[in-house]
Every structure is written in C-alpha cells, then in structure tokens.
Fold these 3 entries.
Entry 1:
Amino acid sequence: MRSEPLLLTARGEGQKGARRRTSPVLAAMALASVLALTATGCGSGDPEANAQASASAASEGDGKITIPDDIRDRLKEHGIDVDKWKDGAWKNWDRDDWLREAQDYINPVIEGLWDPDRMQGAEDPDRGVQKSDLSGDQGVTDPEPAPVDAKAVSPTYHDNVPEAGKVFFDSPEGTMVCSATVVADPAHPGRSNLVWTAGHCVHAGRSGGWYRNIAFVPSYNDQALSAAELAGATEDELAPYGVWWADWAGTSDQWIAQGGPTGGEGAPYDFAVIHVTPENGGSGKSLEETVGSALPVNFAAPAVPRVESITVDGYPAAAPFDGETLYQCQDRPGRLSINASDPTMYRVGCTMTGGSSGGGWVASGADGEPALVSNTSIGPVNAGWLAGPRLGEVAKGVYDSVSQKFAGE
C-alpha cells in the first residue's frame, strides 16, 4: 500500500483545479502492460526521473518472446523493432516512447521472464491516500477506522480463496507487484479469463503510460512456504496454476488523466480489468476452469450504512510483510471522500501495506453469495486503513468493454 492514500500507480501532486475531466467510460488498453499504484502496491510513477531506466529494471530473464503478427504490426506502428524489444528494448522508459493512450496497450509474452527469482524480487508499488440511495454518501468522510490486524490465510490458498493471486509487471523503477482477483466473464460463463486489479497496477496515470510484461499468478505460493523454503522454490511451487499474461487491459479514462502516485488523485476510479492467456499455451482450459472459481462483480453495491462487512484480500509486500503470504482483513466499511465531485470510496481498518493494491474487496450480495465490490487503491503511509473505489457505471463500462472484446472467441 502506500504512504498517503494508496492510490494506484501514479503518485503525483495534485493540480486539482487543472484536472481534466473525461468521459465516465473506460479507456480500453490494448495489449498489456501493468500499472503500479501508489499506496497499495506499486512503484513510483515519475517517468521523468526514470529516463535512465534500463538499469533499474531487475533481471530480465532469457526467455524467448512470442509475438503474434497482429502485435508485431502494432509494435511496428509505434516504431518498435521486434528484435530489439526481445533483447531488452522494453526497458526503455523514455517519456517520448512510453505508450500511454488506451489503444496503445502492448504486452507481448516473453516466455520464462517471470521466473521464481524475478517473482520473489518484485517490489510493492507503494501508493500512499441503484437499489440504494447513495446521495447520503456523496462528499462524506467518516472518522478514521481503528486498525484491523491482517490475518494470514491458511494454506493451501486455493482451497480458501481460489480467486486470489498476484499481478507482476515492469515499471521504470523495476519489477513490481500488486494483488488481483479472478472475476466472472458474462461473455463466457464458467470460462472466464478476466482478472480485476487496480488501475495503478497497469498504468502510471497522468505522468506516464502502460506498464510492461504484466502477468497474473493465481494462488501464488499456494502452500505458504517459509522464507527458507522459498529460497529453493520452483516455479511450480510459486505458480501452481501457471503464469497468465495480460493480452489486453482496460482502466478508466479518469485514472489515465488524473491518477498519481500519492495524494489520492484518481483513486475513486482506480480499477482495471485484464484479459489473460497462459504463458505456455496451457491445456485449453480457461483461467476460471483452471482455478475452479471466479467472483461475480457487483456494480450496484449498497450505500455504506447498509454494508455489514467487507473482506479484503491481498499479498502485502512492504514491511513488516514480505509479499509472499496471502492475508485478509474483515471490517465494516466507512466512507472516504477524496473530492466532493467524485464518488465516495469505501474505507476499512486494515494493517496491510503496499503490494496489497488491487486486491479484491468481497461482500455478500442480495442473494447472499460473495461478490467483488471494490479493490484496494490507497492507504496511509504508516498503514492502518485501506480505501477502495465503489464500482459503478464507469467500472462496468471498463469491465464490459474488455469482456466484449473477446466475446467471439
């Protein structure tokens, strides 16, 4: 999470008066790249400070790169040489060459890039602050909640929270990590390849562009191996259900235009949906079939006074946590308003730190079944609470656009 509100990837300073308002509809990302949020789990989003970037990315791995013709053509359109990209040109974070717009998303699979050493070395992207009538929540901030100690989930994680996992990506600051959730796909019931995370875990916001080499690992470290055991862990132990690359991603226009690494800018719209594909081609099964579950998403979550309890999942990576263990917090939410004109966010007491960004917030729906109602976006520098966006019309637009893109498959 981050110091200050855990806002996703772009931490920047405010310029509230200069904020550009954009359509409430999504900004569909094109082939993959991950952004890092601020408070909850991503890295710095200041591209200017990272022009020297090649050296800051952690070891890149020697894996081969798989580039379909359509991606090859898209790379060429942006002046990117495929062979140079394969040999490490993806580490060039020069602002002029950093793809930023929704349609510019490009994330070719580099087989073997996310090996055990690289996954364990990833850092948190530190990001620090209808049925129901929501008018009483608008612009309201409740007293800061009492901290709720995060509890380690019992292994195996897959038996208890099969939808949870980690998102890995590269940013100008190096390898980064966030948390994420497998969600249902209306276009493919029972066969979803959709993952929900924070916007700052795929895009740097107003001061940058799409992150690169974005990949999802469900049930990461499923057996909750200790630090000593992890030293010799194999990929099968860290990623028992495989590594799934984001071949498409979508986040909100608001996050792209306003998002910053600190201060909460863009946080009410800090969400993202990625479509994934198995690194090695897999068995032909979808992500949902592989892990055995996917959560529905509730885009009409009730006003705060009507929510009894929310459970927050995540892999906190900033001290005192190490990013290798899945944790949960459970609390009755309060309200947090970043800007009176933006939707009021949910806020809960929770001691999880950076790395938990993007993790799912789950509550019982009208049918009594669990559903995703938010994701971790921001939190204070010293931890103690987390805040997440309420998922409404804009979030549904992002979700539907990513789902519909692959509806014919």
Entry 2:
Amino acid sequence: MNEFLRKKWEMAGLADDYIFNKVMLDYDICLEVLRRILPDLHIKKIKLPNNQQEFAVAPDAKAVRFDIYTTDEQGNHYDIEMQVADHHNIAKRIRYYQTASSMEAYDKGQPYEQADDSYVIFFCNFDPFQLDQQRYVLHKHIDEIPEQIIEDGQTDILFNVPSLRHDVDPKMQAFLDMIAQRKVEATDPLVVKLKERIAVVKRNRKWRSEYMRRSVYEMDQEMREKKIREGERKIRDGKRELLEGKRELQKGKRELQKGKREIKEGQDRLKEKEQLIQEREQKLHENQQTIIKTSILAMRELNIDETTIRKEIKEKFNLSDKKIKDYFAE
C-alpha cells in the first residue's frame, strides 16, 4: 500500500467525502443528523440512506450523483453533500442538485400543490459565500419585499464547517466540530456513534481498497486537469503575447510611417530653404550687378579712364577678369 495513501486513509475523518458517505449510510446516524439540522420537522423515520444515487433531469442533461439521499415518512426529500474543495460554483451547483431532487418530489398526475418538499444540505470545508456565517439557509423571495419568502417547498442549507461562531444549536455544533476534528463532548450519543462508525469504516478492507483506487484516480484526474489548465494557460499566454506582438508591430508601423512623414516634411522644408537661399543669392547678385553698373556709369560721368575704372571695380567687388570684361562689354 502506498505510504502516502495509507496515511491519508488513517488521517481521514468526516471532512473527507468518502468517509462522510460511508458514515452517513448508517441509518441512526443519518436520522439523528437530519433531526439536528431540521429540528422543527420532528422527523420520526427515514428510508435507508442511499449514497451515490444518480439522477438526470433529462436524457441528454448532465447527471448528478448525490452523496447521501433519503426521504422521511412525510415524503420530504433530503440530499446531504460533503463539499471538500471550493470550486467557486457553489450557487449553480446547489441549483442543479435542487432541480434533480425536486424532480423526484413530483409524481406523475399529482397536483403541484401536493409535491413533496426538497432539502439540499451542504457541509462545506470553507465559507461558501464568504459572508462569515456559520449557516446559510436559502429560500426564494420577492426582490421588492425581501422578507416575503416564496413557499415553493425548496430549501437549501449550507454549513460553513471551519467557522467558530457557534451560532447553531449545541447539538448541531457537536456534529460540525466532529467534521472539523475539533474537541467534542464525548458523552454526546451522536458523537459516540460517529466515532464507532468511523472505526468500523476504517476496518473495512473493501472500503479501504476502494478508497485507495479512488484516491489514485482522483490524483490522476487532478494531474490531468492540472495539465489541461496549464495547457490552457499557455495558450492564453501565447494568444496574449501574439496580440501584444501584433500591437507592437502596429505601433512600429505607425512610428515608421510617422518617421517617413517627418523625413519627407524635413526634406520639403530643406528644399524650401534651399530655394529661399537661391532666391536671396539671385537677389544679391542682381543687386550687385545694378550697383556695379551704376558705379561704372558714375565714374565714366566723372571722366575717369577705363583702366582705372576696371581696376577699381575689380578690387572693390572682387571680380574675375572675365566678369570685368563682361561688364565693360555691355
């Protein structure tokens, strides 16, 4: 026997759904637990508890398998569940369990008002609604008048097993303490029966082997689900990285287009400046020509000889012999 599984079996208590189911199959224990949960019903007797009973609301619908299922002498239906892990779907889960249980409460041809009542009871190893309550009792009500309960025969009861509020009846608290493996009053008849029944379950080799096989299956299933979740996470991460890459690519393209526009705008501005410089240089050249021509005419009017004028113009305006020649050829 695997050492880990052996220790798990030895340490398992009522908080383990397998142990819980086998313990609750005991008629007296199941009856007493229901009496403590619902003392106002004054339950006298129940049918022999059935565990792992399966119901399907429709042929193609998801089947639901109850942990412990029974009915009382009044025809009330009871589904008792041990919820070990919080899968954050408790409200929808209760809804489906209640639907399956309620279907059993309606006999063919029976008037609706004669339908039996249905109770779905969850013992949760966590706070199911994170509201710090020890017990949650759920009924339908009118939104506009919250205190007005709709008597449709359906009742959901959830216990927050780890809670230490002690808001429930002491007898009910003793059962919750047994589940949580807290210190309990040894003289409580139910506590005595529970301890004896747990010992009987632990001595049953068939149940122990079944527990081992189920545990191995659950660990394999958990590993597969973990790999699936990891694969889904990697796919999500890959899609997110791909999307980010596309966004970065689009951003790069936009920046490239912006850069191209800025380069073109810069080139256009440079051309404009070059053209402006050319225009200014042309203007200066034209002004210089006018000044030179005016100077030559002025000196000629003063009867200055051509050689002196050429020399004066060449030195003053730093002109080449060719340009001097052009001016005096006019």
Entry 3:
Amino acid sequence: MHEMKSGLLSVIICNYNYERYVGAAISSALAIDWPDVEVIVVDDGSIDGSTKVIETFVPRGVIPLFRQNRGQAAAAADGYRHSRGEWILFLDADDVVGPSIVHDAVAAMKPGWSMIQFQMKVIDENGKPLDSIFPMYRNDSTPSSIRRWVVEVDNYPTPPNSGNLLARQFLDKIFPLEEGMDRFVDSYFLSTAPLLGDVLTVRKAIVSYRMHGSNDGAQSVLDIGKIERDLTRHLRRCRYSARIAEQYGVNASPERWRFGFYNMSMRLASLRLAPSGHPIAGDTVFGCMKDLAIAVTREQGFNALRHVAMATWLFGVAIVPQPIARALVSWRFAPLSRPRLLKRLIQAT
C-alpha cells in the first residue's frame, strides 16, 4: 500500500476555443496540493485567443502542445503520449479542479483500481455555484456492484471527463485509442474502467462543472438532435467496451444497452419528440416498454427511490401527450429548465 501513497499526477487539459475559461482550468491544476504534478495543455487548433492565454503559463512549468484540429479524443491521446504520471486527470478546459483532489484520491486508493470518481458541483459561466451537485451515488456502491451494473445494463452513476482520476496501468490497456470510436476521450475510459479494474467512489464535490450554453455535455436548453447524437455515441461505446473487455477475458454483451435507464431515456425522448431522426432502425415505443419491463428488475446504480422515480418517468414519457412528454424530457436533459421544487427534491434524494 505504501507505494500508492506517492506518485506523479499528469493533468491533461484539452482546449478548443475556450479562451475565456482555459486560464482558470490551468490555474486550478497548478494549485493542486501535491508535490508532483505536471500540467500539459493541448490546444486543438483554436482560432480564438487561447494560444496567448496558454503561453502565459509556460514560465510556470506548463507544457503546451499546439496542433491542428482533430477532435478532443485525439488531443487527449497526444497529451497522454507526452505525459509521465502514474495518475492521469483529463481536465476539460472549461472546468475547474479543487486543490485536494490527489489527497482525497490517495485516501481511497486500493490495489487494482482503474478509476477514482468524484462528485461535481455545477457553476455558471462566471464561476458562480448553481446549487447542484452530481452524480448522486448510492451509499452501498462498491467496485463489484458497479461492475455488475455495467455488465447487466451498461449504466452506472459517474461524472463526465473532469470528475475522474485514472490509473496509467488501466489506461495503457486502452491506449492507443481505437480511432473513430468517439470524439470524446471519456467515452473510452468510462465504458471500460469498471470492466478492467475497480472503480472507487469519493462522495465529495471536488471538481466544478461549468455550464455556459456551449457545453458538449449538459444542455442549458433542450436539443433533441443532441440527444439523438448522444444515443448513437452510447450504443457505439457499449459495443466498444464489450470488444475491449473480451480481450481481457471479461464477458459483457454488446447489446446490454437495451436495459439501461439512461439509454432508454434517450430512446424514448427521440421516439416521442423527433422520430424521423431516431438513430435505431426498427425501434419503437412499444419495444422500449418491453425492454423497460426487464430493466425495472435490474439494478441501475440508483437507490430505491430514484429507481422508482426513473422508471415512472420513462413510463410517463412513453404514454403522455407529446407536449407533456417534451416538458418531462426537458427537465431530464436540460437541468436549468427544472422547477425549483424539483431541483430540491432531486438533490434531497
């Protein structure tokens, strides 16, 4: 255990046209309370003033990599090739990491870990807290239960990119990345970390997730086209993780996505609100309901109350008139549209 209590952290920040935010991300990485931290900033062909911002941090030891635009996953791969750390944090250029992240991670470390996931607090474009913390983890979740959820339903509560500390011994199993699987690097590691190691959970909001209207992740206003694109990505990464897992003797069905509440929520949103663009050939609302009948019998990583609430939401989206379905979908995928009472209820459970 002792050798796990010291190590080099590599913070890899991939930036594209985030001149307004990248300086805060870099500053937060430099402020991490740990003696051995390297900060690598990969600028993916920005055409704004990002380059000048990044260059101001070079005298403080930041390693800049400037390259033509090829997408975030390719940028992350470049950063990974130049990194030396045994621990890796892929920090989005519009997010901010707290100084205690390594100390909190080290306190949780156990042999065989692949990823340590934290909670994230939501801030607005100016850095003001929005009184929202996610994900909400079950108190009894363990690496074994997370692995079971992924094998059965391709789903587990986890934050996006910046909310995870990764072990190089795990990442070396998936790098170099399969080209073209996804343009976001977290699709590669979130889908495989529970299958190739132990995912450890720290229930502490250490990273700030910035919502500013141009996020690739959370929506500020409902965008059905984005939901359909994300659904396509999730199906692709489910099949990718099954292929990777098989190489290491782990069995995970490439079709298990059918029984995950999150994938089903995207399926129903697409089918009810924009069926002409639905990305799954032959899929129907009735087919979703048949899958839901199986899904409700399988753990999804939620506590009992959230499990029932999510199943009820799915059933509601399937049967209510379209205007009501649109409101339900908006509350689910565009958090800022939620009524204040609903926000409080979600945080309370």
